Amino acid sequence: MKTRLFTTGLLLFISVMTQAQPQTIAEIIKPYSFDTKYAVLRDSIKLAYIDEGAGDKTLVFIHGLATYLPSWYKNIPALSKKYRCIAIDLPGYGRSSKGKYPGTMSFYASIVNELIEKLALENIVLVGHSMGAQVSLTTALKYPEKIESLIVASPAGFERFNENESVWLKSVFKAPIIASATPEQIRANYGLNFYQMPADIDFMIEDRINMAQAEDFMDYCNAVAKGVIGMLDEPVFDDLSEIDQPVLVVYGANDALIPNQLLHKNITTKQVAEASTEKLPNASLHIIPECGHFVPFEKADIFNNLIVEFLSK
After folding, report:
1. Any idea what the Cα angle at residue 109 is, between residues 187 and 66, rounded to 5°?
2. Based on CB atoms within 10 Å of each CB, which residue in 9, 83, 90, 243 is the most buried?
3. Is 163 helix (H, G, I), strand (E, B) or coil?
4. Domains of the chain with CATH codes
């Protein structure tokens, strides 16, 4: 009897100790739907990515602020039938390394360039959403010889902010404020990304809620805060005329995030989209009705078809 009690107590102790071990975001979020690979870059940055399909073009997908590579779950299966599709977790996000990274658009562009060189990629099409679109445009400006064309969905960096607006935005997107969001606020924040929030976005919301338990959660929050600063400090609007590559610009007609609803009430998404697309020497614009900010997820079939049509020209 004593032996049995001792064994039961020991197993209970081991179970409690195992559960008490701190976990990282990479351990807490759900396993990715595709085989996850890693590239070790400078400063020991471990970049998580997926690599699916094959074709004469390589599409590199770059997610937006506060998200991760599952943003492209509705695009990879269809597009990988025609192209090689690589989606990444930017440093500070998902399964990639967490740390004290700058969070500037130039930093992320250099990471994209380093991955291109590491994997010896050719015929590259950058596909970016929101902040990831601004990263894509910055990459094209800094490494134009590497990029064949671009597809930017709900791109950040097109909307212009004055100095006072920029200071205010930076003040409300500080890491402690991001970290303090309740599950209800997180769900509401996700809702702002959609014209009609789809039920299959729930896994992302659950991941974000559970991430608060991770030991590296504040690294993620700092990455988000620095990303906001990076977008504001390195806008691309004034440099768009320097991008010679073909560019497909896609917005949702009902984007509640661009333009900023608090600061720019008298500007429409269509106005932001048209003013910026006109500055690009070789660009086409598509505005999708009944669609919010998260275009690749909310209107995936339309978005995928636009990409195929664009790349077939």
Report:
1. 10
2. 90
3. helix
4. 28-312 (3.40.50.1820)
What is the C-alpha R_g of the chain?
21
pLDDT > 70: percent of the chain? 94
> Residue 14: is its pLDDT beyond 80?
no
| Residue 10 reports pLDDT greater than 90 | no
Report the chain's terminal Cα–Cα distance, integer Å.
78
DSSP-derived 3-state class of residue 104: coil
26-52: average pLDDT: 97
Give the Cα separation of 254 and 56 in Å (integer): 34
Return the closest-CA partner of residue 111 out of 122, 125, 97.
Answer: 97
190 neighbors 204 (Cβ within 8 angstroms): yes
Separation between Cα atoms, residue 39 and residue 86, nearest integer Å? 12
pLDDT level of residue 313 (50, 70, 90 thresholds): confident
What is the reported pLDDT for 42? 87
Percent of the chain as helix, strand, coil, to the nearest 5:
50, 15, 35
Q: What's the CA gap between 131 and 65, in Å, rounded?
A: 5
**DSSP H stretches of helix in the chain:** 2-20, 25-28, 76-79, 105-118, 131-142, 163-172, 175-179, 183-191, 202-210, 217-233, 269-277, 295-298, 300-312
CA 125, 128, 129: angle at the middle one, nearest 5?
155
